[in-house]
Amino acid sequence: MDLADGSILDSNKALTTHSNLVEGIEKVVAGLKQEYLKDIKLVSVSTTLSTNSTLEGKGHPAGLILAGYTVNGDIPAHETISIDGGHDSKGNEVSCLDLKSVEQFVNNTRGRLFSYAVSSYFSVRNPEHELSVKKTIEQLTDKPVVCGHELSLSLGAYERAVTAVLNARLIPITTQFIRAVLSVMEARNIKAPMMVMKCDGSLARIEEALEKPVESIFSGPAASLVGAAHISGLKTCVAVDVGGTSTDIALIEDGVPEISENGAIVGNWKTMVRAVRIRTSAMGGDSHVWVQKKLHIGPNRVIPLCLAASDYPILEDKLRKAERISDRIMDDIFQLTSFFVRSGNAGEDDDIHALNYSIEFELENYERKIFDVIGYEPVSVSDISEAVGKHPLQFVKALRSLVQKRCIFHIGFTPTDALHVLGEYDTWNSTVSWLGAKLLGSYLGLDPESFSREIKRNFAKNIALDLLAFFAKDFKREDLEKLLTNSRFTKFKINIPVVMIGAPVKAYVPELREFIDADIRIPKFHEVGNAAGALAGNIVKRSEILIRPIGFGTEQYHVFSEVERKVADNYLEAVDYGTKLMEKLIFDHMDGYGLQKDQVRFDLERKDFTPGFGAQKETRLMGLGIGNPLKLEQ
């Protein structure tokens, strides 16, 4: 991207290499015009690594120190201790902090934990105890320490503790990812600062991202939203990002992404992370298409037949020889178009073989018997049945478990294959897609083309339904579906442009227009809209300051902020101090990015309220600062 005007100079796209991140990053950079690399001024990334790691429970072991309270719900910490300490709602100390217990806990656990999280009761009113615990831990070990008040100033001790622990668990994973990007930059002699997209659609310096990786939990969809607005030239639009695993929908208004009223929810964990409001459905280009008396799409992701055949030409022969089975016993695993292959490739280095060995060692007996007959060439369910001498229904459970554990990959028919059959997408092997559509379509009495058109229409209908559900969020999805499909003389109208990004989106526009009335746009560079968003994102600083009376009998007020608890002699003094502090917090943050006051949009919202009859007035100040890296060149 040209930072002077935000135009895209060149782009490239490559498949993710999950087993070796550096390989995929290197491949995608190598495909760019190399003459531009010597002039790079900024590198920025978005990633779903934090989301996936949290969903899969793959974060590194972290310990949690609770000061002044205990929690009743589940906590994603490996070891937890509750100590004396904490404050009340006015920021006054409730009990003395027990640092000796902290020392004992760290000395007993530092050999098996990667990081620590600290959460003190009412730390948002006074962070002194969290900071004291952090200082004690840092004197005993060099492992990362995360404080709850550093991540959120909202009330909710349990959610703040969860957020702190998740952050602590993600630090080693994020560090590994960023090191992978930096290693490719160094190899290509790219000397430029690096930024990371946060899940509220803003950018953060690499140092901040390493300290708060939990804030990148939804950075992928956030970058897609910002990218859709940038490449379409729109300040207000709804973005639809059709990816491999899911379809994500989000809204940007006047250049600012709509933020969820509640914190980001990842899996079973409700966090206090400020995130873009996203509507996600588990339907993407790689969603598994399967039949069982009717057509099903998803929710699981598989490797498309057309893509797999590029690496495994044997698939074409296997599909031609496939024998019909009873649809009574078919499910999402037992399909004529389902094939399975070990994760990793034969001939890879010893680390990969060691990984496969450890995976095999941890398998249950019923899983290991099936794993043993699956190698580095795809095998069908019938192949496995013949090898183990069992009916497929006897080992479907094992196959499902092995796929979930990522010991093996599932290859199958997908919407991407359907587009290959219809000639609307031709990146890989269309022949195997046609053979797959022929096999599955025969169960529904459809030829390959009709079967593929039905998939395409269902996919577009799902996008339309997700758009409807995004805007009509108080209605049940099943009621919206009835409205969408059963109303012959009505059509849902969207009054702002719908910008679609992702490699295959052009193909779905005609069908999508059957269901909704909207200005649907497919901008240039829609295939790399996510990457464009990672560069075009704003630097955003949000802050809140609460002004509350100390109590009856005094005119003094507390000023609670992210940096301190200040006592003011009266209300006017408190408001004046809070307003000046807010401006300082915003512009100091922007100054760290090299942005001057005239390059920053600063908004200050004030809300006054009186809690009850005879009570003194309270005030909440909400500050928003917005700057853009593109302005650094101006």
Summed up, the helix count is: 20
Mean pLDDT: 84
Large-scale geometry: globular
For the biggest sheet, the summary is: 6 strands, mixed
- Backbone CA Rg: 27 Å
How widely separated are the two ends? 15 Å
Specify the structural class.
alpha/beta
How many strand segments?
A: 28
> Strand-residue fraction?
15-25%
Percent in helix: 25-40%
Low-confidence stretches: 345-361
Pfam family, one: Hydantoinase_A
InterPro entries: Hydant_A_N, Hydantoinase_A, Oxoprolinase-like
Domain Hydantoinase/oxoprolinase N-terminal: 8-139
Protein name: Hydantoinase
Give the secondary structure arrangement, pairings included.
Elements: H1 21-30, E1 43-45, H2 49-55, E2 62-67, E3 79-83, H3 99-109, E4 115-120, H4 128-140, E5 145-147, H5 157-187, E6 194-197, E7 203-205, H6 206-211, H7 219-232, E8 237-242, E9 247-253, E10 256-257, E11 265-266, E12 269-270, E13 279-281, E14 287-291, E15 295-301, E16 303-304, H8 305-311, H9 314-320, E17 339-342, H10 350-362, H11 365-371, E18 379-380, H12 381-388, H13 396-404, E19 408-412, H14 415-421, H15 430-442, H16 448-471, H17 477-486, E20 492-493, E21 498-501, H18 509-515, E22 516-517, E23 520-521, H19 529-536, E24 539-549, E25 557-560, E26 565-568, H20 571-591, E27 601-609, E28 618-627
Parallel strand pairs: 1-6, 2-3, 2-4, 4-5, 8-21, 16-19, 20-22, 21-23
Antiparallel strand pairs: 6-7, 8-9, 9-10, 9-13, 11-12, 14-15, 17-18, 17-19, 24-25, 24-28, 25-26, 27-28
